[in-house]
Each structure stands twice: as C-alpha cells, then as structure tokens.
Write a structure and sequence with these properties.
Largest sheet: 7 strands, mixed
Structural class: alpha/beta
Distance between the termini: 65 Å
Shape: flat
Number of strands: 13
Helix content: 40-55%
Number of helices: 28
Strand content: 5-15%
Strand order of the largest sheet: 4-3-9-5-8-7-6
C-alpha cells in the first residue's frame, strides 16, 4: 500500500472534523481498521471498506474518486496484480479513476483509462439516443415550450449548510435556484452537494427537463466528468436490490456490452457506477409502487451519490413525511405555463389562413383573455397549463388537417376540465393513426384496432406496475400457470411437427404420426416442468443475452466457465433423459399390454439409458458453446428493436452450433451407451438407423425446445409472435406496430425499452374506451388555476 492513501484518508478525516472513533462509528468499521489504514499498517483495504469510508466522510465526487484511486494495490514492480487471485479483492482497478502522483510526475492508471474510454462511449450513445428522442417528440418544433421553476417549501428541502457542504457552525444563505429550461445545468452546478429534486405535477415537463439536462451536461462534459444517464426509477424495488446494483443492472440492460468483464473482476457497468462515472438522473420517483417510496427515499439517503430526482409533489411530500427529505438535496418546483406562453406558441404550430395573419387559435386565446370566468375560458385555463396538455392540443387541433381549435370552446361536449382532458387524450391516439397519404414509413392501421392493442399494452404495464415496455416480458402480464401451459403447448406442437417430418425419413407416416404425438406430448410436458421451476415459479423473466457468437477472431471471452456450464448441461440432460426415457418406456409398455413388473423394469432401464445419452451430449455441447461466446459491443443496443434483432441473431447462431453438435453427440452417444449396456441388460433393440434418427430429432427438437423456453428471443416468439396475436391482443406484426407507434409519438424509447409518451396516456388507455372520466390528476393534486 502506498503512503498516499494513508495521508489522504487522514487529511480528509481531519477536514471533516472527525476523530478516528467518530469515523469508525459513522462508517460501521472498526477503530483498529481506521488506525491501521492511516498508519499504513494495513495495506489491503477492501472495496467495501473504502466505499464505506467515502460515504461516511461525505466526499465530493472528485474526492471520492481520488480516495478510491489511491487505494489500488500494486506489486513492488508497479504492476496491478491479478484481480482474480484474492477471495475478496482489494479496491478493484476499476476504482482507479483519478490521476496518481508518482516520482516521475502525474500519470494515469491503464485501468483508469479503460473506464474513461468506456464512459466516453456511453456518453456518445446516450447523447445520440436523447437527441433522437427530442426530434421524435417535436420538442424543437417550432421551439421548446417554456419550462420554469421556483424554490419549494422549506420542509421539502434539506438544511442549506448540508446542501452547501459547510462545516458545523456555519449559517449559510439559500442558493438562488430559479431558472428555466436552458439554464438547468448551470443551476445544478451551483449546488455543491450535486443533489437536486425537481417537483412538478403530472405533465408539467419533468421528463423534458431531465432530457435537456442530460444533453446540455453532455455537451459541456470533459473526459473525466461523469456521464448523466436517465433512469426510469419507477421500476426500482429498494427492498430487493440496492441502488448501485439496480443502476448497474439498468446500464447492462440498456447497454448489454457493459456486462463484459471489467477491471478488478467486476463488469464494466459496476465499475462505472462504483467509480462515480455515472451521474444518475432518476426520473419518476412518483411512479415507484405504493409502499416502496419511503424505503426508496431511505435508500437514496444511505448514499452520497450526486443525482437529479424528479417526482410529482404529492408523492414526494408523503415520502418525506414518513422519513426525511433527500439528504443534502436542494429542491425546485415547476410552474404552470402562462397565457403569454400559449399566445406565443400555439399560433406558430398551425398554418395561416390565406389572406389572413390570424390562425385558428385566435378564438381560444380570445376566450382566455377576454372571458376567463366563462365556463369555456375556465376549462381551458385549468387544462392548458402544462406542456403535456398543450402538446396534445397542438397534435389534435393544429397538426390534424381537419383540426379546429375552436372546438375546445364547446361546453356542451366538454363541460368540465376533466372531460376536456379526456377529449385530448382520446383524440390524440385517433389523430396519430389518421390516414396519411404518402406518409413514408408509417403503416396504415385501423385507429380503433390500434387503440385496442395500445390498451392491452397499457394494461400489461399496469399489471406489472412498471412504465417500461420490455419486449422480452410482453407475455408476463398473464398468470404464471398460463405462461407455462402456453410455452409447453408451443414446444410440444413444434417438436411433434419436427418428429413427424424427420421421422418419415426412417419409418412409415402412420407410425411417425403416433411417434410425433407421443414425443411432442412428453417433450412439451418435460420442458413445461423445466420452465415452471426455472422461470415461472420464481416469477422471473428470461433476460436478453449479453453475448454473441464468434467463431473466428481472438476477442475477449465472457468470463463464463465452460466446465461449470458442462456440468450444468450434463445434469439437465440427465434429468431430462431419465424422465423422457421412463415415461416413454411406460407408454410403450402400455401399448404392448405388457405386465406391470415388465413395464416398470423396462421404464427404469430406458430412463437410465436415455439419461446417460442426453447427459453425455448436453454437457459437452453446452460447454463447447461457451467457448464461442464473446461480449456484445458497448453500442450494440441502441434501441429495443436492435436489441431484439441482436438477440435473435445470437440465438440463431447458437442453434446452428448447438443443434448439430448435440445431435451428433446424442446419436453416437446412444451407440456408446447401448452396446455396453446390452452386455448387462441383455439384448437391446437399437441400431445405427435408430441412433441417426434419435440424433436428428434430438438435435432439432432439443434446440427449439431450449430456445422457446429459456431464451428471451424464444419467449418473445412464443407470446408476442404466436399467442398474443392469436388471441387478438396484439397484431401479428408486433415489431412493425411498436416501431410505428414510436414514430407517431405514442411511444417513446428509453434505452432498451419502450414507454408510453406519458404516464397519463398509459393510464388513460388502460381504462378502456368505456371507463368513467377521471376527475383529478393521478397524483390527486388539483387542476391548475387560471392562466395569467
């Protein structure tokens, strides 16, 4: 251990006015540990210990980075030791994220450069993603709607001394935090703690602000600065996973290449989070499930991570009342749009009438100015106060050729603000799917059918209690038993077809029809049981693969152990073979009307033989497959469809490799097992033709059964391409529908998943066309007051 870490730790402790005993108590480590680290007697600080010390000292990001970097263990020759050698390694090289001072001058660790380069690639991907999202949502057409904010009530923000990171005894003045959209990064940089809460009612522009913050921050980002990444925090369960682990998991989902092994034995995503190279922009605290917001806020307070958090006011205030404010965080609240904002924006969104400078919005603006107390004026003043409702009004009454803004003044149809909002939400979908001659890539969908399919997707998300529309979980809104039965049914029918077609090369059609029926029934049953215990019973999802297949080239491997995969494959093959052989023996004995003792003896013998055959084939085949796996590229998942296609190619390549290898091993393995067994069990009806037939059917059927049940692409195929379209809940061309909905602005992309344009639209569509009208915002907050 270098003396730099000891000296730095001692200095930081003294600057925080803490004794060794106080620091030990605050960090939850022993006093002897603190003393040993400061004197240099302990030369092996563990990553957990260093992290606890950094949290207890309340370090700024750059100080935390330096403490972690100086804790990198080096050999006398100056080389970084093998990270896999210790059982619990010292601070991993991934933590080396700051320059190190040496006798020859400041240098950068190669490990620091690895994570810095990875962060730069993530930054480029994030910037491209959110620029494209702004274009899709027409944020700059003709210009961004004003988003302004003001300071919140004192009870929703921490002490200014904590926000400003001042020593005890200070009496700081509040920071000036007022501003508007183009100044959000400057306002954030005024906050020494780097923690900001943005509150706003439904549709007030919180997500737009989060996107603009990320893009503006990235524009001015330096090579060593953290990368702002937007996370939809509504899917986080703080009782099941820590914040840092959840952030790393989300990064791996949106950037599968970050699952590759990184410095220090961790993966790249964990390395980026642990070294402070990710600035979390946590959007949608209010979308966290009821009952989890208090533990979520407590978990956020257990860290010192710089972050930006958005929420509706009511949900955040309720969580604060149950526990505490977000530690060291300043807070602001978004304000309503004004009449001047509408007068400047809405007329520029529609075409001018020939020979006139006025537009169709003039009657609406006149009513708001001259008759604000009339029923029509009051309704409009209550609704057109948020960017969401204004953009919906623009889509319905400006962008549509037959849209007439004056219809919003019709109090016979829209007698209340709630009816007016429902009109905008309903007609937004209808307008989005109106026929557009010469619309290029947009397909022609029946608006009513499109609304029905979108309603199913919205209900699906409500059942899963998440805003994230993940293609690999589209069938997971159904009950676990239903999913298992559907999976078993599809696999059974597929293998029956494979057995029937392939088997006709060896036996009669009549025999193969019966054999295919038996094989499909048994295999569907066994794969269904395997699916239940491995997936459905745990209520887990089969996650997309983070690897691809590469036959040539010397790219780095995934770190997966082929021997371990071989043992798992052999065990699964043994269990499957024993079950398959036993059931098949019982059915053959029953068909032959053999006595029960002979049936049981033959079934046990068949179970042993088939178990050995499949164990000797599945183990080596799976182990061999591991040797050809290589991590995905960091930029591989730019959007949900590219991730789906990447996984489809991975599964197809896996099947092309695994199926023939497995088939050959089953065929030859059967001969290697049966002939020696005949010496013990007596004559066995088996020959080369039977081995070839079993190998072909097993190779094809086993590969398809595995793909449909235990890969994300297979689950997508079973539910999204077969079952849900067959039952009318989704269209047959699901990919085309989702991509088209994104281009129409109904859906948005958030990394590897889709989301509805806004949570209000999701909840509205989930109600169905005959649902009662909503009388308040989803957060229960009152409607906006009159426009000023």
């Amino acid at each position: 251990m270098t003396s730099e870490f000891s000296a730095l730790l001692k200095r930081l402790r003294r600057e925080a006015n803490l004794t060794q005993e106080a620091l030990a108590e605050r960090a939850g480590v022993g006093v002897r540990t603190i003393r040993g680290l400061e004197t240099g007697e302990r030369a092996d600080p563990r990553v957990t210990t260093v992290r606890l010390l950094a949290d207890a000292l309340g370090l700024r990001p750059e100080e935390r980075e330096r403490l972690l970097s100086t804790a990198v263990l080096r050999t006398p020759g100056g080389e970084v030791p093998d990270a896999e050698s210790p059982a619990e390694p010292p601070v991993p090289p991934a933590a080396a994220s700051a320059p190190e001072a040496t006798a020859s001058g400041p240098t950068r660790s190669p490990l620091h450069e690895v994570l810095a380069d990875v962060a730069d690639q993530v930054a480029q991907t994030v910037a491209a993603r959110w620029r494209r999202e702004e274009e899709q949502r027409q944020v700059h057409d003709p210009y961004p709607l004003p988003v302004r904010w003001r300071p919140v009530a004192e009870e929703l923000t921490d002490h200014w001394a904590n926000i400003r990171r001042l020593p005890p005894g200070s009496a700081p003045a509040p920071l000036e935090l007022g501003g508007q959209l183009d100044a959000i990064v400057n306002v954030y940089r005024r906050i020494p703690s780097g923690r900001l809460v943005v509150l706003g009612r439904s549709g007030s522009g919180k997500t737009i602000l989060a996107v603009r913050f990320a893009l503006d921050h990235l524009k001015a980002r330096g090579h060593a600065d953290a990368v702002p990444v937007i996370f939809s925090i509504g899917s986080w369960d703080p009782t099941a996973i820590t914040l840092r682990d959840w952030l790393a998991a989300q990064l791996r989902r949106d950037h599968p290449g970050l699952a590759a092994p990184g410095p220090g034995g961790t993966n790249l995503a964990e390395g980026l989070v642990e070294t402070g190279r990710i600035l979390p922009v946590l959007d949608g605290f209010d979308e966290i499930a009821d009952g989890l917001r208090r533990p979520a806020l407590e978990a956020l307070n257990a860290t010192t991570l710089p972050l930006l958090l958005t929420s509706r006011p009511a949900e955040y205030a309720a969580a604060v009342a149950e526990t505490d404010v977000l530690t060291s965080a300043a807070a602001v609240e978004l304000t309503d749009l004004t009449l001047d904002d509408l007068a400047a924006y809405l007329p520029r969104t529609t075409r001018k009438a020939r020979g006139r400078s006025a537009t169709g919005w003039e009657p609406v603006l006149h009513a708001l100015r001259e008759r604000p107390r009339s029923q029509a004026g009051a309704n409009l003043a209550a609704v057109l106060t948020t960017p969401l409702m204004v953009t919906l009004a623009r889509a319905v009454h400006s962008d549509a050729p037959d849209g007439d803004p004056a219809a919003l003044l019709d109090t016979r149809h829209f007698g209340t603000p709630e009816e007016l909002e429902d009109h905008l939400l309903d007609n937004f979908v209808t307008t989005a799917y109106r026929p557009r001659p010469g619309s290029g890539p947009l397909r022609a969908w029946d608006p009513e059918r499109a609304r029905h399919w979108l309603g199913y997707l919205a209900q699906h998300l409500n059942r899963l209690d998440t805003p994230d529309l993940e293609w690999w979980r589209l069938g997971y809104g159904m009950r676990r038993t239903t999913r298992t039965l559907v999976t078993a049914l599809v696999i059974g029918l597929t293998i029956a077809l494979v057995d029937g077609v392939v088997g006709t090369l060896f036996d009669s059609v009549a025999y193969q029809l019966l054999d295919g029926l038996v094989a499909g029934l048994l295999t569907g049953l066994l794969f269904g049981i395997a699916y239940w215990f491995m997936v459905a019973a745990k209520d887990a999802a089969v996650e997309p693969s983070v690897v691809r297949m590469r036959i040539r080239g010397g790219e780095r491997r995934t770190g997966r152990n082929p021997l371990r995969r071989l043992m798992i494959g052999a065990l699964c093959g043994l269990v499957f073979g024993v079950g398959y052989g036993f059931v098949r023996g019982v059915l053959n004995g029953a068909i032959a009307h053999a006595p029960l003792p002979f049936v049981l003896a033959g079934s046990i013998g068949d179970g042993v033989l088939y178990g050995l055959m499949f164990a000797l084939a599945a183990g080596p085949a799976l182990g061999l497959l591991t040797l050809f796996e290589t991590p995905l590229d960091i930029r591989s998942a730019l959007n949900p469809i590219s991730l789906l296609r990447t996984n489809g190619r991975t599964v197809a390549t896996q099947l092309l490799v695994w199926s023939p290898v497995f088939g050959v091993l089953v065929g030859f393995g059967s001969l290697a097992v049966v002939y020696p067994a005949a010496a013990v069990l007596g004559p066995v009806a088996w020959n080369l033709t039977a081995a070839l037939k079993l190998g072909l059917i097993s190779g094809l059927g086993g590969a398809l059964g595995y793909a449909f049940s235990l890969t994300s692409w297979g689950q997508w195929t079973v539910f999204s391409r077969i079952w849900l379209p067959l039952t009318g809940r989704l269209p047959w061309s699901v990919v085309a529908f989702l991509e088209d909905a994104y281009r129409r602005g109904v859906l948005r992309q958030a990394g590897a998943v889709y989301q509805f344009r806004h949570a209000r639209l999701q909840h509205h569509l989930a109600r169905g066309p005959r649902a009662p009208l909503r009388t308040s915002d989803p957060d229960g907050s009152p409607r906006g007051g009159p426009l000023k």
